[in-house]
Amino acid sequence: MRTVTLAAVLLTLTTGSVALAKGPAKTKKGKEKAPEPVLVAAAEPLPELPPAEPAAPAPAPVVEAPPSKDKSAAAPASDEPPTAGTGFVLTIGSGAGFLGGEAVEGIDIASALVTFDVKLGGYLTPQFGIMAGLQGGYGALIEGCAGTCSNGYAYQIPVVAQYAFKDRSRGAYVEGGLALFTTYGGSTKSDSGDSPEALKVSAPVDFKVGAGYRFPMGAASDKAATTALDLRFGADLGQFKKVEYSSVGGSVDGDIASAHQAMHFALGLSVGYHFAP
After folding, report:
1. What is the C-alpha separation between 158 and 137, in angstroms, rounded?
2. pTM of the model
3. What sign results for the dihedral spanned by CA atoms 142, 143, 144, 149?
4. C-alpha closest to that of 251 among 176, 199, 185, 180
5. I need a surface site. Which of 21, 73, 203, 214 has the fewest CB within 10 A?
6. Which has the closest alpha carbon to 111: 192, 178, 200?
7. Are 235 and 267 in contact (CB under 8 A)?
8. CA 214, CA 2: separation in Å to the nearest integer?
9. Do 107 and 142 touch, CB atoms closer than 8 A?
C-alpha cells in the first residue's frame, strides 16, 4: 500500500513538471518580445548643432483707415482761375432804357432812351462791394408833353451794394440801392414847327435793383481775369416830387402835392466793360 501511494505521488509530480515545462514554451512561442534598440557609442563626438533662430514676431494686424471725408483731395484739378479777392472795380457801359408810369396823378409819362453809365467802387470782400457813379440817357419823350417832346433826356446818381456769387471779376451778381436826383425831361425841337414846349420831372430818391453776369476775358489757371464783359439788367421804382413845365400857354414850376404824386418805373439793359485789377 505504501508502495502504491509513493508511486502515485511521483506520477503527480512528474506530470506537473511536464506541464510547467510546456507552459512557458507555449507562451514564448505565442508572443515573441520585440528586440530592444541597442545604443552604440560613436567613436567621434557629434558635430554641434547651430543655435536656434529666434522666432519671427507675429505680424501686426493691419487696420484700414476710414475713408477721408475731404473730397477736395480726390477731386480733379479745377481749371477755374483763383479768386480775385478784394479791390477796386470800374464799369463803363451803354444800352437801352425805358421810362413808364405817371408824371403826376392822371398824366402819363413815357420815354425811350439810349443809355450810358459809369460806376466805380470797391469790393470789401471777394463777394461784397459798393459802387457809385453817373447814369444818363438821350432819346425821346413819348408821353408827357401836350405836343411832341422829341428831345428826351435822363440822368441820376446810382449808389448800390453788389453781391457777386463767385467774385468781383466773373460770374453772376445782384445789386440793390438808391438812384439819387433822378430826372427825366424832354422838349420840342426848334426846327420841328411845333409850339415850344418843355417838361422836366425829378425825384430826390428812387429805389434801384439789378442783376448781371460778368464774362471774364483773359483769365488764366493761376490768375484771375482783370477785365470782363458785363451784361446787366436793372429796374427803378419811385415817385416824382417836382415838375417844371412850360409852353406858349404858360408855365408851372414847383413841388407836386403828395395827394397828386404817382408811381413811375424805369427798365434798362446794358453791356459794359468791367475792370477789376
Report:
1. 14
2. 0.68
3. positive
4. 199
5. 73
6. 200
7. yes
8. 154
9. no
